[in-house]
């Protein structure tokens, strides 16, 4: 019998169908993961945009409401500010107190600005309001603002409309008339100022120091006077007494005549010279004949020789309105200012 034929069966594991893209079997799981992530991110982005839109809408409503509140607050502040300014102006018009008037203008500047203060001051001018503007201008300069700063320029422009008066005196020996001022570096200027400070002019003071006052210092003083060109010079005759210096030209004692002549060479101010010298207004030299013809106002004013020993009234009130010296000085300055105004208006 023939040997049966052997049949060999080869069993092989079926091969997976290969992709045409190499490595696809590796990448696809990641692609699937990324796709899922993108889907999630897309949903998140949509929600974010929707939330952002809602936030912007909400923010818009809040800003609109805030603007309404802000406008309402501004209106309330404006109303309160106007009410306060009205009270300040009423107070300013109803009081004659120097410090209250000065403070009122300063408050207006603090609350509503310098321009508003200038507008209110123009209708309520006094010595106190002018001094307030001078103080504000000084503060602006100290802040370091340039000369062309609009507020500083406006202040200076307004101040230029107010006349200037310069008072010159010395604390040398007994030049001060009031006992309480004599010997402690005070001058008559310190005692005269309270009775004239309410008058509408800018106040300047030059306190002559005899320790360092010579021809050079006198020339510098003339230069400062000419620079400011004050409409009024109030000079104590005794301010030049005892200086013991010589002028640079003639080698003579510098006199008030020479001093004033140097000023009058540059411009023509009004002048008041006062002294306790007996019959001072009638005594030589006749400065009015020499210099007064070119001056709007020129007066030599007698001041009384007040008793000093055991006279309790002869303190810093010796230039008060109740004392003859105070009355004379005040009346003389008032006449000078009135004459200057008439002169400026062309009435003289």
Description:
This protein is of the alpha/beta class and 348 residues long. Strands 2-1-3-4-5 form a 5-stranded parallel beta sheet, with helices on both faces. Helix 2 crosses helix 4 and helix 3 runs parallel beside helix 5. About 1% of the residues have low confidence.
Query: What average pLDDT do the residues reach?
Result: 77
Strand content: 5-15%
Oligomer: single chain
Give the strand tally.
5
Helix content: 40-55%
Biggest sheet architecture: 5 strands, parallel
Please report the number of helical segments: 10
Strand order of the largest sheet: 2-1-3-4-5
Radius of gyration: 44 Å
Order of helices and strands: HHHHHEHEHEHEHEH
Tell me the span between the first and last alpha carbons. Answer: 171 Å
* Overall outline: elongated
- The computed structural class is alpha/beta
Q: Give unreliable regions as ranges.
A: 247-251
Transmembrane segments: 26-46
Keywords: Membrane, Transmembrane, Transmembrane helix
């Amino acid at each position: 019998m023939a040997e049966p034929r052997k049949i060999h069966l080869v069993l092989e594991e079926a091969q997976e169908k290969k992709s045409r893209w190499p490595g696809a079997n590796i990448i696809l799981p990641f692609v699937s993961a990324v796709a899922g992530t993108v889907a999630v991110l897309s949903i998140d982005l949509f929600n974010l945009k929707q939330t952002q839109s809602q936030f912007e809408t909400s923010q818009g409503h809040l800003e609109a409401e805030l603007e309404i509140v802000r406008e309402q607050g501004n209106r309330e502040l404006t109303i309160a500010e106007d009410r306060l300014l009205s009270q300040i102006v009423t107070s300013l018009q109803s009081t004659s107190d120097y410090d209250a008037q000065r403070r009122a203008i300063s408050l207006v500047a603090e609350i509503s600005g310098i321009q508003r203060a200038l507008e209110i001051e123009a209708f309520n001018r006094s010595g106190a309001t002018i001094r307030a503007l001078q103080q504000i201008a000084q503060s602006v300069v100290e802040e370091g603002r340039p000369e062309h700063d609009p507020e500083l320029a406006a202040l200076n422009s307004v101040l230029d409309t107010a006349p200037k008066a310069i008072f010159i005196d010395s604390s040398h020996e007994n030049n001060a008339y009031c006992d309480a001022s004599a010997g402690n570096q005070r001058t008559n200027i310190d005692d005269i100022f309270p009775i004239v400070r309410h008058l509408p002019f800018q106040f300047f003071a030059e306190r002559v120091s005899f320790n360092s006052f010579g021809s050079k210092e006198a020339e510098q003083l003339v230069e400062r006077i000419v620079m400011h060109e004050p409409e009024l010079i109030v000079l104590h005759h005794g301010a030049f007494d005892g200086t013991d210096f010589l002028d640079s030209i003639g080698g003579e004692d510098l006199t008030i005549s020479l001093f004033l002549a140097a000023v009058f060479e540059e411009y023509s101010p009004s002048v008041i010279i006062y002294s306790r010298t007996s019959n001072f207004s009638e005594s030589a030299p006749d400065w009015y004949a020499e210099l007064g013809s070119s001056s709007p106002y020129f007066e030599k004013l007698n001041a009384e020789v007040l008793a000093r020993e055991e006279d309790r009234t002869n303190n810093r009130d010796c230039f008060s309105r109740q004392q003859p010296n105070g009355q004379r000085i005040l009346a003389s300055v008032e006449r000078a200012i009135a004459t200057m105004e008439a002169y400026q208006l062309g009435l003289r």
